[in-house]
Design a protein that fits this description.
The chain is an all-alpha fold. The chain is 79% helix and 0% strand. Helix 1 packs antiparallel against helix 2, helix 5 runs parallel beside helix 10 and helix 9 crosses helix 10. The longest helix is centred in the C-terminal third of the chain and has 34 residues. The chain is elongated and about 80 Å long. The C terminus is likely disordered.
Length: 335
């Protein structure tokens, strides 16, 4: 395509569209019809330029024109409580359900890695010695030691807020960095499982595995599930770069990227719940069985939420993307 010829042929239409947009609501019926027609033509021109001979300056101008025209033609819709309700009852659980083929294997493999690291440390004293000196290991694992007092070392409210912030950041990093072929996500997962495995192995070697599990399971079930969901979604986004499927790479990344952004918001709420459990339930004086039961109930509720509500929405075609009216249409690639 000869870009100069294309610009000369269509510049008058773009200038006319810009003029009509500047008139605001002071349009006659004929001018309103003309604006709609020019919007459709300009959107097609933009699609053609993006696919054949992109020019940053021209593409930027047409993108702005199309966005303004679209807002004028369709009207600006403001988000409200209805959108929030739909997101948490339909969009978010559907997105988690649709990515289950990624986060469930991620959870199984990651858990196996953590357990293997714990077993290796617990059964190899020389590895324990490489981690810390004997006195330091004893300080970590003894009754009333650092592992046991960690969850009660700060006021519950501030501790819960700190935990929630850290975990939400980790989940967001997994979602954002997934586009880099998923490699940063794998590293973050390994670090998390290595930390878990070290605690598991050291407490098991000290004969206090039951205490460790009683401290980890109440909040850890839900917390780790949220991290696995974020990691699985990030890996799925990374794989989209390699294999976008029947869509163009740009369209596939845009769709799954928008779903991942929504996932970050939903997982922040899930991690907020696990942070409350970690701040108020884990260090509480409740019996171990009661604390673990609370964790199991929270985990079970989340899984039911995903596989019942999310499964129903997913089968109905919901993908966790924004509504069709709020995203760019798939445009033809011919003028």
């Amino acid at each position: 395509m000869d870009l100069d010829v294309f610009v000369v042929a269509h510049r008058a239409e773009w200038d006319r569209l810009e003029h009509l947009l500047g008139r605001g609501r002071k349009l006659t019926g004929a001018e309103a019809d003309e604006l709609v027609e020019l919007y459709q033509r300009t959107a097609t021109h933009l699609s053609l330029l993006q696919s054949s001979s992109p020019d940053p300056m021209l593409t930027g101008r047409l993108t702005q024109l199309v966005a303004r025209a679209r807002a004028t033609v369709t009207g600006v819709r403001r988000a409200g409580w209805r959108d929030a309700v739909l997101f948490f009852t339909v969009g978010f659980p559907a997105a988690v359900h649709r990515s289950r083929r990624w986060w469930i294997p991620t959870a199984l493999v990651s858990t196996a890695v953590g357990v293997l690291i714990g077993w290796w440390i617990a059964t190899h004293p020389e590895v324990q010695g490489a981690i810390a000196a004997p006195d330091e290991l004893k300080a970590l694992t003894k009754p009333g030691g650092e592992y046991e007092t960690y969850y009660s070392s700060h006021p519950a409210a501030s501790f819960a807020a700190q935990v929630w912030t850290n975990n939400a950041q980790a989940a967001a990093v997994c979602l954002v960095l997934g586009a880099f072929l998923g490699l940063p996500v794998l590293w973050i997962l390994f670090l998390n499982m290595a930390n878990l495995g070290v605690g598991l192995g050291l407490m098991a070697s000290a004969g206090r595995l039951d205490v460790f599990l009683g401290l980890i399971l109440p909040h850890g079930l839900l917390e780790l599930t949220a991290v696995f969901v974020a990691a699985g979604t990030g890996l799925r986004l990374g794989w989209t770069v390699v294999d976008p499927g029947p869509q163009t790479r740009r369209a596939a990344l845009a769709e799954r990227g928008r779903a991942a952004l929504g996932m970050a918001i939903g997982l922040a709420v899930v991690l907020f719940v696990s942070g409350l459990i970690e701040g108020f339930v884990t260090p509480s004086g409740l019996p171990t069985w009661a604390r673990i039961t609370i964790g199991v109930i929270a985990e079970g509720a989340f899984l039911l939420y995903v596989f019942v509500l999310g499964g129903r929405a997913s089968r109905a075609g919901e993908a966790g993307d924004v509504e069709a009216a709020d995203r760019n249409a798939s445009l033809p690639t011919a003028a």
